[in-house]
UniProtKB/TrEMBL annotation:
Gene3D superfamilies listed in its UniProt record: Haemolymph juvenile hormone binding protein (3.15.10.30)
GO CC terms in record: extracellular space
Superkingdom: Eukaryota
Taxonomic lineage from the root: Eukaryota, Metazoa, Ecdysozoa, Arthropoda, Hexapoda
Name of the molecule in the record: Takeout/JHBP like protein
Record key words, sorted: Biological rhythms, Signal
InterPro entries: Haemolymph_juvenile_hormone-bd, To_sf
Family named by the database record: Belongs to the TO family.
BP-aspect Gene Ontology terms: circadian rhythm
Any Pfam family hit: JHBP
Signal peptide: 1-23
Length: 247
């Protein structure tokens, strides 16, 4: 059974009006969030920090009228990392990575570096979840190792500092891990599917990860830097911030 054409037209009109109302409401909300912030005011950085935290409800749904796509979860098609020290080296490729937890985060510090055209801010996450596929190629003294499978990572009581600088038409993003209170990680197929041994290895890694934090930290830095580069380059590249902030 087909709907009458007049009913279809009515629904189109209703949905269009709903979308226009929602768009107008979002624009008013963004204007309200940023309106107290004046570039010349001594509390400008504090005002922007408060504004960023008020934007959290939009992380999951985005702001289509301003070209801001949802980014909780954030999706990264591929992240690569290569390391080589002495006779030890590896190449790690992470694919189809989903990263969740943005909408639960809080900006704790914010600073505008007017001279260098960059911003620096710190962010706290009660929890951050990552999941995806991996491919590992290692070489130690001529002995090659290859593994691939699924992995997941949970970070708790986690904080990071982000530096963002305009680079031509794009942005240069650098993220550093400040603190990890606790972490759970699972890497499948490390021992070629030997489930009992892999479960034992999982427990050992999760109980002893802190001494190896220096090895894990660069990987997490690369992961979150890639996520932020995507978010700022794709979602916020055309965000008309000057239209909402007064001089």
């Amino acid at each position: 059974m087909h709907l009458p054409k007049i009913l279809i037209c009515v629904w189109v009109i209703i949905l269009s009006n709903i979308q226009r109302t929602r768009t107008a409401g979002e624009m008013e909300d963004i204007q309200r969030i940023f309106s107290p912030c004046h570039k010349s005011a001594p509390d400008f950085d504090q005002c922007i920090k408060r504004a960023f935290n008020k934007l959290k409800p939009y992380f999951k749904r985005g702001i289509p009228a301003l070209g801001v796509a949802p980014f909780d979860p954030h999706f990264a098609e591929e992240v690569r990392q290569t390391r080589s020290v002495g006779g030890l080296g590896y190449k790690l490729t992470l694919r189809n990575v989903y990263e969740r937890g943005w909408s639960q985060s809080t900006v704790t510090k914010y600073k505008t570096d007017w001279v260098n055209d960059r911003i620096i801010y710190s962010q706290y996450f009660p929890e951050k979840w990552l999941v995806g596929d991996y491919e590992f190629q290692g070489d130690a003294f001529g002995l090659g190792v290859m593994r691939s499978g699924r992995w997941n990572l949970t970070l708790r009581d986690y904080s990071q500092t982000t530096r963002i600088k305009r680079d031509g038409s794009g942005v240069d993003v650098h993220v550093e891990v400040d603190h990890i209170g606790d972490m759970d990680i699972h890497v499948g197929n490390l021992l070629r599917g030997r489930s009992i041994l892999e479960q034992m290895l999982d427990r050992m890694i999760n109980l002893t990860w802190k001494p190896g934090f220096a090895v894990i930290r660069p990987l997490i830095n690369d992961l979150v830097s890639t996520a932020f580069t995507d978010i700022w380059s794709k979602s916020f590249r055309d965000f008309p911030i000057d239209a909402f902030i007064q001089n």
